[in-house]
Design brief:
Layout (H helix, E strand, L loop, with lengths): L4 H8 L5 H19 L9 H15 L1 H12 L12 H8 L4 H22 L19 H4 L2 H4 L1 H24 L6 H25 L6 E9 L4 H4 L5 H16 L5 E3 L10 H14 L2 E11 L9 E10 L5 E6 L19 H4 L14 E4 L36 E7 L6 H7 L6 E6 L9 H16 L3 E5 L5 E3 L5 E4 L11 E9 L10 H5 L2 H28 L1
Parallel strand pairs: 1-2, 2-3, 7-8, 8-9
Antiparallel strand pairs: 1-12, 3-4, 4-5, 6-7, 9-10, 10-11
Helix pairs in contact: 1-9, 2-3, 2-4, 4-6, 6-9, 6-18, 9-10, 12-13
């Protein structure tokens, strides 16, 4: 439907005045978001869930509404508005020449991308389910994201959708022109074929790898309400420990627990966990809360809280930590809660997290510890370097393996993933907890978005989740393994092992064009959209000034 919907809603507004164009686009967008974001209703705060679902959908619907209105506002500066029927207006539409229509379809696709750029950044951004993400299974097509980011895929889908709508209307409106419809499609089809050829060629290129890292991913499937019930802490810990023992029987190099996996760092829990990894000589990464005293704090309770990931060595030693940078609004912090305290009653979040400062590479070797601000042990007073025997020899990974952690929906944010994917990084790791949303489409949607972070940066991406979708994605965007397959079992507790390809020892990864240049394509679309919007309004302003 992604290849049909943009053209369909655009031509539903053909011949309508500006306000009506906006209304048609708004209700089309509202229907889309109310359906696709229904999983927000699973949040265990009924009042807040309903308000959040309606408010977010109503806000996001403004963007397709603006798009429909702007596209017709800019069509050759010609208004197809009047008392005539829609069918007559279609005939008038084809009185323009082909070059005008072709330029308009291209500009419309650029407008769509420009608005996605705004959605992904405004009010901290919500870069969720861009139109191009719908093509995550079309592996040859999405390779263009290694150049343009996901925005390039959105552009192609919108461009072809509008061109297809124009071609179909021309078939019915001007049946005498046997091959006229092909004229409307030719540019978009040529580009689509070129993109597919590029993608197939990229898929045929051998990956730069000669080693593997065997990872064990544990999925405890703890309901969100139990995460807050401290009476269940012991049961939670026993469950994840039992799953870990079974997973370690496969002899992995790295054991991974998801976000919010550690109930609390009691002495007994920490000893049991470190004894387990020491016994199996395995590295470990887990997600848990972290706290630090505020700079200059004097009182006993003056701490900053972080959503964190920790790296432990095969000797049971703390090696590194990463603090989540991009926090979830209304989930990890409440904006304006100081001035609007009633928000705490609607969404009773006990406290706000503090965002981390930068990516922190985790190095699986005899490495110095790195803290959440990116400093090594030797850089901070009172700390010393940690050295550990590595368990990587069981695979072919004979030297250090470096990875970057993304927590929660950070694997949905293109810019953040790009900053984390340095040239010496072997793969990205996402630790997430979608227990908030029950057994819903949220887990699949996040995984679909994550596919593009792998393609954009040319890196494998491993996902360890609380209740689905635990999987790993190769550097070309193919989902190579899913815990418990494709059925309902993806939400259940369990574990899986996977062998992640690693770049050759001592060789730096060749960065993708997108990794070097970022969202250049999106910004080009933004600039083009602004220029064309200003030009479209200038004649009207000039006429008003002349009349005055």
């Amino acid at each position: 439907m992604a290849w049909v919907a943009p053209g369909l809603m655009l031509f539903a507004a053909l011949g309508q005045r500006g306000r009506e164009c906006f209304r048609i686009g708004y209700f089309a967008g509202l229907a889309n978001y109310l359906c696709s974001l229904y999983w927000l209703l699973f949040i265990p705060f009924p009042a807040g869930a309903i308000v959040g679902w309606l408010a977010l959908s109503a806000y996001l619907a403004l963007y397709p509404a603006t798009w429909v209105w702007l596209c017709w506002r800019l069509f050759s500066r010609k208004e197809f508005v009047g008392e005539q029927s829609w069918w007559s207006v279609v005939g008038e539409f084809f009185t323009t020449n082909w070059s005008q229509r072709a330029r308009w379809t291209l500009l419309s696709a650029a407008f769509w991308v420009a608005l996605e750029m705004v959605v992904g950044r405004f009010l901290s951004g919500f870069p969720w389910n861009f139109l191009g993400v719908s093509q995550y299974r079309m592996v040859p097509l999405i390779q263009i994201a290694s150049v343009t980011g996901v925005y390039g895929v959105s552009f192609i889908v919108v461009w072809l959708s509008i061109s297809l709508a124009v071609a179909l209307l021309r078939i019915v409106r001007q049946p005498g022109l046997r091959w006229g419809w092909l004229l409307e499609l030719r540019l978009a089809l040529i580009v689509l074929i070129g993109v597919m050829v590029f993608g197939l060629n990229r898929l045929l290129q051998p990956a730069q790898t000669d080693r593997e890292l065997k990872v064990a991913l544990v999925q405890p499937a703890i309901p969100q309400t139990l995460l807050w019930d401290h009476r269940e802490d012991a049961n939670r810990f026993d469950k994840i420990m039992d799953l870990s023992k079974r997973a370690l029987a496969a002899g992995p190099d790295l054991l991974i627990w998801p976000e919010s996996s550690m109930p609390n760092f009691t002495e007994d829990n920490f000893r049991a966990m470190t004894n387990l990894i020491v016994a199996h000589k395995v590295w470990m990464i887990l997600g848990a809360d972290d706290a630090e005293r505020r700079p200059g704090a004097t009182g006993p309770g003056e701490y900053e809280n972080f959503n964190a990931a920790f790296l432990l060595s095969p000797e049971g030693k703390y090696v590194a930590r990463y603090h989540k940078q991009h926090l979830v609004v209304f989930g990890e912090y409440l904006p304006f809660a100081r001035w609007l305290p009633f928000l705490r009653r609607i969404l009773p979040i006990p406290g706000d997290f503090t965002p981390g400062g930068r990516p922190v590479p985790f190095e699986l070797d005899a490495a110095a510890a790195v803290d959440g601000r990116g400093t090594r042990d030797g850089d901070a007073p009172g700390r010393r370097s940690q050295t550990a025997a590595t368990g990587l020899d069981r695979s072919n990974a004979t030297s250090a393996v470096r990875l970057s952690v993304l927590i929660c929906f950070e694997d949905v944010v293109p810019g953040l993933a790009r900053r984390s994917a340095g040239s010496d990084i072997d793969f990205l790791l996402n630790l997430t907890n979608d227990g908030w949303f029950g057994e819903s489409a949220a887990q699949w949607q996040q995984a679909a978005n994550a596919v593009f972070r792998a393609v954009e940066n040319g890196l494998p991406l491993v996902r360890c989740t609380n209740n689905g979708l635990t999987c790993w994605i190769d550097s070309r965007g193919a989902i190579r393994g899913i815990l418990s397959g494709e059925g309902k079992a993806v939400y259940a507790q369990g574990f899986m092992t996977a062998k992640i390809p690693i770049r050759p020892a001592g060789q730096k990864r060749e960065p993708t064009f997108y990794h070097r240049h970022g969202d250049w394509f999106g910004w080009v679309c933004v600039v083009l959209s602004v220029v064309m919007a200003v030009r479209s309004f200038l004649p009207k302003v000039a006429r008003q000034d002349t009349g005055a």
